[in-house]
Design goal:
alpha/beta; Aldehyde Oxidoreductase, domain 4; 2 domains; three-stranded antiparallel sheet; three-stranded mixed sheet; 7 helices
């Protein structure tokens, strides 16, 4: 069982379990990944800042190494040999000692209660020597159609390319990038706070605050470029926030390429863009 303190807002348990399993040499399916509360595991920083797969992944990696160390110590105790002569082999999850002594992971796990009790590996990113947070880079391409009669912009195709380090769970990484791009498309074309003269927000409902829905969205292609981060044992980079930013510039540039209007104030709503089109026409 792997218990972490990072709240799972989508994919964390899987990504952390995969890093833990890789370090132990165990199948991912064998890991029961849980999120503990502060009574179970103590205080843990918030899930945000594209940090969880990177930082808590470091803790999972170190906790797995702590488990390996304790398994070596327990095997040495059972065999009556020096711990320096015992080695945990990640390749097949076996504990090997002198004179041909070998425990599989399951065999040694069954011996733990009668040889000193179960073991618990621990680690945190405060005391862990965490490596450098690898910068994450992205490039987005937007293809748009602009209706000169109404000012409406339709994104017909969207491509997001991003250096993601090592994609621990590629499907989740792609979903993260697509979700971020969708938020950016909304900010580029529709989403805006509107206030009256008294400073009251007048579009404070989902009916008036226009967020993109499924039929607003284009065909999206996500391209993962994997350049491992040398500051992480598995090459992880944080990917969450990066894809929200490029859509604003990509769509603005696509509008300029289509109709020759440089949108200076976003969102490029139909009302705002139509006024620019009328001025251009006159």
């Amino acid at each position: 069982t792997l218990t972490t303190g990072s709240v799972d807002i989508g994919g964390q348990r899987a990504a952390l379990a995969m890093q833990f399993a890789e370090t132990m040499g165990l199948p991912y399916e064998a890991i029961n990944s849980l999120v503990g509360d502060t009574d179970t595991i103590g205080f843990t920083g918030n899930t945000g800042g594209s940090r969880t797969t990177f930082a808590t992944g470091w803790a999972a990696y170190q906790a797995a190494n702590d488990v390996r160390r304790q398994l070596e110590e327990r095997a040495a105790k059972i065999w009556g040999v020096n711990v320096e002569d015992v080695n945990y082999d990640q390749a097949d999850a076996t504990i090997k000692g002198p004179d041909g002594n070998v425990f599989t992971f399951k065999e040694l796990a069954r011996r733990l209660p009668g040889s000193g009790g179960n073991i618990q590996g621990r680690a945190d990113v405060v005391s862990t020597n965490v490596g450098k947070v690898g910068a994450c880079y992205g490039a987005h391409i937007a293809d748009v159609e602009v209706d000169r009669e109404t000012g409406k912009v339709k994104v017909v195709r969207y491509t997001a390319i991003q250096d993601v380090g090592t994609a621990i769970h590629p499907a989740y990484v792609e979903g993260q990038i697509e979700g971020g791009a969708v938020q950016g498309i909304g900010m580029a074309l529709n989403e805006e706070y509107v206030y009256n003269e008294d400073g009251r927000m007048v579009n404070a409902s989902f009916l008036d605050y226009r967020m993109p829905v499924a039929n607003d969205l284009p065909s999206m292609e996500t391209i993962l470029v994997e350049v491992p981060n040398p500051g992480h044992p598995f090459g992880v980079r944080g990917v969450g926030e990066v894809p929200i930013v490029p859509p604003l510039g990509a769509i603005s540039n696509a509008i300029y390429d289509a109709v020759g209007i440089r949108v200076r104030d976003l969102p490029a709503s139909p009302t705002r863009l139509l006024a620019e089109l009328m001025e251009q026409k006159n």
